[in-house]
Amino acid sequence: MQPGTLSTFLKRGAIWGFIVLELIFFSIAGEFLSVSDKAFINVDNMLLLFKQSAPIGIIAMGMTIIMVNGNIDLSVGATYAISAIVMLDAMTWSMFAGLGDGVIPVAWILALLTGVALGALNGLIVWKTGVDAFIVTLGSMLGYRGLVFMYNGEQPTSHLNWTLVDFAEAQWLGLHTATWFLLVVTAAVWFLMNKTVHGRNAYAIGNNRSAAVNAGIRVGPHMVINFMIIGFLAALSAVVFYSESGSVNPNDGELYELWVITAVVLGGTKLTGGAGSIISTFGGVLAIQLLRKGLSHIGADTETVNLVIGLILIAVLFLDRQLNTKGKEELKV
Amino acid sequence: MSDLTPVLRLEDIVKTFPGVRALDGVSLTLMPGEVHALMGENGAGKSTLMKVLGGILKPNEGRILVAETPVVMSSPLEAKAKGIVFIHQELSLAEELSVAENIYLGELPRKRFGLVDWATLETRTNAILEKLKVGFDARTRVGDLSIANQQMVEIARALTVDAKAVIFDEPTASLTDAEKVVLFDVIAGLQEQGVGIIYISHRMEEIFRITDRISVLRDGSYRGTVNTADTDEEAVTQLMIGRKLDLTRNESHHELGDVALEVRGLCCGDLFRDISFEVRRGEVVGFYGLVGAGRTEIAETLFGLRDPSAGTILLDGQETVIHSPTDAISRGISLVPEDRKGQGLILGMNCRDNMTLPQVDDLKAGPFVAEGAEVSIFDQYRDRLDIRTPGWKQLVGNLSGGNQQKIVIGKWLSMRPSVLIVDEPTRGIDVGSKSEIHNLIRELAAQGYAVIVISSEMPEVLHVSDRIVAMYSGRIMRTFTSEEVTEDNLIQAISGITPDKAA
């Protein structure tokens, strides 16, 4: 075994080990603390867990691409809300009145295009101005949220279409529609990042930008494409979730960016870019959802959940730093 | 060399930076199948010339001809497309990616729909790695490789394209002897295919082993080309250092005091091994060596920035362990770092605040900073070091290099150290201020400080040092007194040539 293999293995597999720990902990603690008499590990409960992971999970896949590329996107929550409004509102537009249920795919496509356009705008600004993605998307987070409020004031935007609800609540091979979307997105993004030139170049750019530039990789277009992908995925996440709920509040999706980034970082993606794995992000998403579910299973309230997740995130990053220092001869800074 | 069209020709290249004429009418001809060494001291302009050639810098005057056709190269990519491949000294690799992906960075073979053709990529890479006889394969993550192997990955990039000219910039800096042999085989292979090779190195034995011709640069100007077979180390050294530099040795000696700092058998991983020396009060010890010889790392270890893996440090005869810069400062060790702007100063702060930075904790009037005390410290050292600034409110970023360096030195003097380490004290400082800094260093020693000067400039080391420690790849080769040192024996010592037993 080469030196470093063990720590690499620990790092790669850590998130799954953590999930197993969570399962064991909540099963045992649930026996004593839970108010319900159902076991924590129960098929329905786990299926629900997957379904509930979908909104954050779908966006997290896009965030992994963005962060591997060396950027960050804080505007996903606002993009999510705008896309949801576009989808629900479009179904009531008079020009589509004659379509019947045919309005559903039209509304979906409009919502997804909205997401792509907002993402492209982010990407173009980052590319053409050279301003850090953190600042650009901090601005667009506020700006896009402003658009949400301009659209309908403080009022929720609602439209319930039962065909849509039926589709969203359907189960196929036991899994919910939302779960299928999450799985398909995960597979597609994994394929993109591991099998295509675009994906590998994204890794190279995040890893050593000047080397990538010197090798003739065009950094800007790659970044714009990645921002379009995350915009698309934020919209897709909204499409999946609001097809079922049918009503969007102007505050929906707030703090999503932070949950998404937490999941991605738990999955081991570096904040500085260049390293990260789609599968581990999937693990990170499940781990967070398990924690939320598990804590409520044993009767903890929401505030506790946030506290615990915050502590775990810091602990994980500390561990990562410990595993990554190369030895005591290293320059201390 | 039957084919007489040069693969590459440089004509009267001039490159100026603000205030410096980095290249002054340099011409160079590279024939096919030739290994052409480019030599010169640090700062002679080799790197600038290669950056011009590699498309990273644009020359102000002169022409570049590839196969006798004038070309303009505006990016490294264009240079590569014209068959000029540049193997960098500093690694430019993406550590998280595989070896194959790094070698073909930016030119991954594709299948339909933008998919990476992994099979082709792997076959091609493994074929190249086979030639290089390395112990890793295409799928290894670059970050898991040793520095030497990473260098081999960098070298492998030269073999991916149909190169006309390959530039190697200090390729052996981190290679072991076995790997060097492989590298030389690779170079010989390229030579047979008619590729012209420019080989930059400081190591005489390599130059004489593999090159056909040697061109020498000094202070940005071309000093001539010689056939390797017709020359020897002496002659090349003469060409490199020339005569016009002020190589006067330090003549004055001060009364030496007790040993202030002694180092015994200090090691730090691969960075340096078995370093022993001592510095007395009133003495200036110069550390001379090539970039990467481990000099700065020794300074960093003494200043508590690195933990040594073995060895002891004695201060005033007492064994000491230095854990951190705070430790070092409290024990009277000060470091004037190599990178003045990045590590030595806070450019956006004014002169006074920079100077009192390490002791501002002690300068308090109640809960507030005692401004008056700060100003008086600043005034004292401004006068003592002759720092020319309109006033203490001036931002340090607006001062000249020489005055900036004096602020850093003043900062440490005000901490009353016993050992002062100065790393590259005159880098990027104009000639006039250089001699001022040199005089200052001599004066400080006269006042009883023990001073260590690390420098890559030979005139500087000769000028200020009472004794000179010559280092070569992490080891002390020899220690000279200022009486016995000559340019020749010094340059030989830092090139790894062991002195004759008779001498």
TrEMBL record, chain A:
Q: Where in the cell is it found?
A: Cell membrane
Which UniProt key words apply to this protein?
A: Cell inner membrane, Cell membrane, Membrane, Transmembrane, Transmembrane helix, Transport
- Segments spanning the bilayer are 12-29, 49-68, 80-100, 106-127, 134-152, 172-193, 224-243, 258-291, 303-319
Membrane topology type, per the record? Multi-pass membrane protein
State one molecular function term (GO): transmembrane transporter activity
Q: Which domain of life is it from?
A: Bacteria
Alphabetical GO CC annotations of the entry are: plasma membrane
UniProt cross-references to Pfam families, sorted A to Z:
BPD_transp_2
* Subunit organization: The complex is composed of two ATP-binding proteins (LsrA), two transmembrane proteins (LsrC and LsrD) and a solute-binding protein (LsrB).
Described function: Part of the ABC transporter complex LsrABCD involved in autoinducer 2 (AI-2) import. Probably responsible for the translocation of the substrate across the membrane.
Protein known as: Autoinducer 2 import system permease protein LsrD
Question: Which species does this protein come from?
Answer: Antarctobacter heliothermus
TrEMBL record, chain B:
**InterPro entries recorded for this chain?**
AAA+_ATPase, ABC_carbohydrate_import_ATPase, ABC_transporter-like_ATP-bd, ABC_transporter-like_CS, P-loop_NTPase
Q: Which residues form the ABC transporter domain?
A: 8-244, 254-498
Task: Tell me the CDD domains matching this sequence.
Answer: ABC_Carb_Monos_I (cd03216), ABC_Carb_Monos_II (cd03215)
How is the protein disposed in the membrane? Peripheral membrane protein
A GO cellular-component term linked to this record: plasma membrane
Which GO molecular-function terms appear in the entry? ATP binding; ATP hydrolysis activity
Domain of life of the organism encoding this protein: Bacteria
Q: What Pfam families would the database entry show?
A: ABC_tran
Q: Which UniProt keywords apply?
A: ATP-binding, Cell membrane, Membrane, Nucleotide-binding, Repeat, Sugar transport, Translocase, Transport
- Location relative to the cell: Cell membrane
Q: Supply the name of the protein.
A: Monosaccharide ABC transporter ATP-binding protein, CUT2 family
- What species was this sequence derived from? Antarctobacter heliothermus
